[in-house]
Amino acid sequence: MEVLLYYAIFFVSIYILAIVFRDKLKVDVYGPLLMRRTKKMRGWIDYIANLSPKFWRWSMNIGIPIAVFGMAFMVYTIIISLEVMFQKPTTALLLPGVDIPGSPIFVPIFAGIIALILLMVVHEFGHGILARAQGVGIKSIGVILLAILPGAFVELEEEDVEKAKRAVKLRIYAAGSMFNLGLAAIAWVVVIVLTSSFIPYAFQSDGLKIISVTPNGPSEGILQEGMVVSSINGYPVNNRTSYTELIVNKTKPGDQMTYVTDKGTYTITATGQPSNQSIAYPGTRSETHLVVKPDVAQTYGEIIPWFLYDLADVCYWIYALNLMVGLFNLLPMKPLDGGYIFEELLRYKVPENITGRIVSSVSWVMIAIVALLIIYGTVPGILQMF
Question: What's the rounded mean pLDDT across residues 320-333?
Fold first, then answer.
């Protein structure tokens, strides 16, 4: 709840500053949309594009079929999600630091903000690099804010885009998501290397750490973020696996749960999960609490092991958010890149007037499904926070 208040204060402050100092800050205000353009980064994009224009073009020749496959996969996924939603509503909001009751995803604020910034920069620069590698000009680069939704953009020269061949357009449209997926792959390799080698060597388990207490949940006001739990109802909880087994197999909604922590002993009464009332819900998120092994601390100290651990955590969220958002952006609906890719593919065989109607119809259907998933799944979880 406090994090949502901080977000509200932050975004309201940005809007006030943008409106009051719009001329000095060179901000365009269009109702709830704020936009700031600049030309300062065009030289850097040109430099990257000119390192090897052929490489960028041929890499996106591979990226186009991957994007089309990703589009089909996302259409299938979103339809399946719609079916599952009515059977088992699931809350999900990728807002760093905000813990919504019933959500399977909680994005930590520090790692999440870094991942989101990289996601936007890499996505838009991907479009810009492919555009310049193929002779399409860039008008400006900028950032936008729509209500609480931040974003970035690369504004291309419209005449150059209109004159460009279909293959050129497809490469440019596919580049954003392909750059996101490429960054996700790099981050995943870093995560795999660190979590399979150094982290098991450097750390050992020392209980379960509470990383978040869900607002208005059964643990609110009793348990606190940062507590290290050694046992629950007399059962040792040394890691996430033992904790999950305890919740699923040995606890029911309505049961009392006694936590032995490093701050004392506390008792809560479990409720049912917001998405499944038959499963016990303590209203906390936890992770295995790790400490540096004594022999490792003697050799490397505490700073290096924890730096590499935090690096693995940040890279995990870079991987996860770039993968999710990169694929979501391939949905065949405008103004997402997938909508433009879908439109160009249709133009290859379908007359222009029919293409426009098909793209518009499909876009509205996709928008309706996404809106329904958000409203039906996320809004009830948000209301539980108040």
Answer: 91
Locate the domains of the chain by residue range.
Answer: 29-196+316-383, 218-282
Over the Cα atoms of the chain, what is R_g?
A: 24
Q: Give the tens place of pLDDT for each residue, 234-256.
A: 888 877 777 878 777 788 888 88
The model's confidence at residue 386, banded by pLDDT at 50, 70 and 90, is low
Q: State yes or no: pLDDT of 7 exceeds 80.
A: no
Residue 99 has pLDDT above 70, yes or no: no
Q: Measuring CA to CA, which residue among 227, 210, 237 is closest to residue 263? A: 227
Instruction: Specify the residue for token string 């694929």.
Output: 327
Compute the distance between CA of residue 272 and CA of residue 255 in angstroms, rounded to an integer: 10
Per-residue pLDDT at 110 = 85
Secondary structure of the chain in HEC code, one letter for each residue? CHHHHHHHHHHHHHHHHHHHCHHHHCEEEECCEEEEEECCCHHHHHHHHHHCHHHHHHHHHHHHHHHHHHHHHHHHHHHHHHHHHHHCCCCCCCCCCCCCCCCCCCCCHHHHHHHHHHHHHHHHHHHHHHHHHCCCCEEEEEEEEECCEEEEEEEECHHHHHHCCHHHHHHHHHHHHHHHHHHHHHHHHHHHHHHHHHHHHHEEEEEEEEEEECCCCCCCCCCCCCCEEEEECCEECCCHHHHHHHHHHHCCCCCEEEEEECCEEEEEECEEECCEEEEEECCEEEEEEEEECHHHHHHHCCHHHHHHHHHHHHHHHHHHHHHHHHHHCCCCCCCCHHHHHHHHHHHCCCCHHHHHHHHHHHHHHHHHHHHHHHHHHHHHHHHCCC
Quote the pLDDT of residue 94.
65
Q: What top-level class would CATH report for the domain 218-282?
A: mainly beta
Q: Alpha-carbon distance 20 to 44, whole Å? A: 31
Which tens digit of pLDDT belongs to each residue from 119-162? 988 998 899 999 999 888 888 888 777 666 677 778 888 888 88
pTM of the model: 0.81
